[in-house]
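Chapter summary example: a protein plus NAP.
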Amino acid sequence: MILVVGATGDLGGRVARLLRSDGQDVRCLVRRHSDDAGLRGIGADIARGDLTEPATLAAACQGVDTVIATATAITRRLAGTYPATIRSADEDGTRSLVDAAEAAGVRRFVYISFAGADAGIGTPLERAKIATEKHLANSVMQTVIARSDAFQEVHLSPMARFDIAAGKVSVIGRGDTGRRWVAIEDVAALLAALALEPNPPALLEFGGPEPLTKNEAIAIAEDLTGRRMKVQRMPRLVARVASRLLGRRNDALASVFGAGVHQDTCEATWDDRPLRQRGINPRSASDFLREQASQARNSS
Ligand SMILES: NC(=O)c1ccc[n+]([C@@H]2O[C@H](COP(=O)([O-])OP(=O)(O)OC[C@H]3O[C@@H](n4cnc5c(N)ncnc54)[C@H](OP(=O)(O)O)[C@@H]3O)[C@@H](O)[C@H]2O)c1
């Protein structure tokens, strides 16, 4: 049995679907009021629980061989409807999950972190990721930390103000740092593979096939649409200060500004080998932009 924690989310949902279509037994930890219909529909077992309620985690881990943890509070915090903080869910909650898994005799724990997580930007999300990585390092379980570069569907989309349809982009910093934006489906395929392969590595850092700066992504978008994008730039220093000032008051927004600084200062030293080695043929960022531009054309 594989327990997916975060399966009502984008990444975790894809992981659960991939594992089910491979015939694996999957259980999903789902918060009390969250909709589990889609997960039931694929034949997943549901355990009601919450990272911030340690008592619910023991039952979810019973009879589980492998845990895959993708849950995060950040998106729900940004939507403004979520009471738990990144500290209580991502950091303390994931620690409780690791402890519950260990106590239940779980053999393997696969955790999604982000590439360059040790860059020292100091955001709440970074602190949670590093704290979890350290806690896992001391675990008796076989632990796998998959550090992914930024997701194309988040950071090259309107969600992160890269809006091809509206012709508008916001960039933190100079925009000339090469990143390997990766497709969420490719990350999901990697996590599913790491749950099942005989001897997974303890740590992997990876991204998509194509190193691309934000400025290059803008140039590609302009080429594809045949019009200039309106680019709004926030200096790195302003984003750094905003991230620090927001701190605990708005942990999600502080983490978003920090992520922007990270993406503008931390050049990708990783590549797509961890994906290709597992037979995954990752989508390039250019292909993703091409799809976005074509959707924008069709809807106009
Ligand atoms: N975005 C990027 O560029 C990037 C890059 C590298 C790594 N990552 C990592 O990838 C993961 C993102 O996954 P995603 O896209 O699937 O996120 P998502 O769509 O925001 O989903 C978050 C999931 O976490 C669950 N969750 C939140 N708080 C919880 C709690 N207290 N107890 C139990 N479950 C809880 C949510 O459940 P509800 O539906 O009930 O709210 C949902 O299932 C994160 O760990 C993130 O740090 C992201």
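Key point: The first helix runs from residue 10 to 21.
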